Structure prediction request, 339 residues.
Amino acid sequence: MQTVKKIIFYVLIAAAFLSACKRNPLKVDISGIEEEIEIVRFEQELFKLPLKDTMEELSTLRSQYPGFFDLFTWKVIGIGGIEEEYFPEIMSEFLTDTMIMKARSMADQEFSDFEKIEKDLTEAFKYYKYHFPEKELPTIYTMISGFNQSVVTAENIIGISLDKYLGSDCSYYRMLSNVPSYKLPNMNSLKMISDVVYAWGLTEFEQAGAATTVLDNIIYQGKLMYFIDALLPEMHDTLKIGYTGKQLNWCIDNEPQMWNYLVEHKMLYSNKRMDILRYINDGPYTTSFPVESPPRTGIWIGWQIVREYMKKHKETTLVQLMGNNDYQQILNDSGYYPE
Prediction:
């Protein structure tokens, strides 16, 4: 009987050990985080304005959201500021434009149930507050941008263009000259959350001037991807980086070959702009790698380097990682060498 008890005890210990090994260390307890991010449905408030004699209503809307209103009119739709002489007329033209009205209608339908997205965004920024308790939470605004930037940021502001997440089969996307076909798979609501987190990381942790080589840039991008890991610990890697399952598996299967190529061709320390861009920019695939490769493989490799670094340095906080711009040291201390 004693032997049986011992066997059961060791089985339970082994099960607990395996469970601990599989546990995501970034899945921290955020139940004590009470502060929540504010989400403003700006497009709903804008489109319900009367189309004539709107100056008073526009002024009221601007007084409610001055920072985002000016960001939207100046930088997103490019019609200038409210003080411009013909601003109400130009805004009215935007609101009644056939394509804009159709985009708004499609967004209303696609996001008729916005609660899941609001829940996911709220949870992501609770993780942000957990890791960065001293930082102020931004306010998130949704908008119809006329198919401009997917996510825009400014000080304490994030703007999301709902019309850039209508689904890869949206008929308008194929009509737009600035939307190549390789971007279509990620123009859906599932990709929105990681895009928001990435854009906020890019804003909060700007690239240091010392990032001049391929290595510097891929590890900087890898830190941003780890930032996404921390804020979206339950999200699958395909959605974090915007790959299909096949593309992700290609990276996993070819990781040693990609790394060896970068090392053997002395790419890691190249400071040529085109060398840097080929490994971090979007596209149909990564040039210099086979056409079966996904784009942005340099970002994926940088991500794996940072993950290895954080595994080996469990005492390192996310604050410390994001503040560490010694990219060579991160590589050295990661022990990264895929086989």
Notes: The radius of gyration is 23 Å. Confidence is low (pLDDT under 50) at residues 1-21.
